């Protein structure tokens, strides 16, 4: 892991994510890249265009000052290389393009937590999880950095062909134990595809301490939360399957997003192909 990208809007949640990412950068001797995106604003009819432009300019100038302060503070505190950039545009699109141009290995995003699903920055985080081609690490507002000794990898054992190199890096750096969790409803029978998916996971984590766990629950999110209470972890990991696991979590209005529910960092990997 060489380049860590952290979008920030200078809120408490994103500032906490910056601190977490800086600690990771220190441990991995990686570059920390800060990005502030100023989204286009809708001009209200009774406000002059001049007033609107001045307001946007002032906002950008203020953010530049904040970025400069962050560079000095973080580089001095963590002894790392820090770069900072300001861009205008739609946050998700800008973050995607910028992460590619900077060859970011991971995007670290802040999240306010339970009951905050309507926040603008929270919406950007969940949208990015669906679209990103690289892993996204979601940091809850109250989560503090600590060595990642215990990792829970929640999976339906569906073939994903995901690139787990970031998780491998964590496991190697912190000598982590990985618990591969499968939440089942009413002791469902394991299908052939699931068996292949389990084998894929077993091979992916072969060189690390790992074990397979099953937990019975009528709801996916409930099962994960209950398991984590019984088996405390420093990180929860998932694969963003388009039509499967995170589709039920992030793609419906009937359940809360896992990134809003979790109290520990959530690492989401993009699947390399869709699951039909």
From TrEMBL:
SUPFAM superfamilies: Adenine nucleotide alpha hydrolases-like
Domain UspA: 1-140
UniProt cross-references to Gene3D superfamilies, sorted A to Z: 3.40.50.12370
Pfam families: Usp
InterPro entries: Universal_stress_UspA (IPR006015), UspA (IPR006016)
Family the UniProt entry places it in: Belongs to the universal stress protein A family.
Stated name of the protein: Universal stress protein
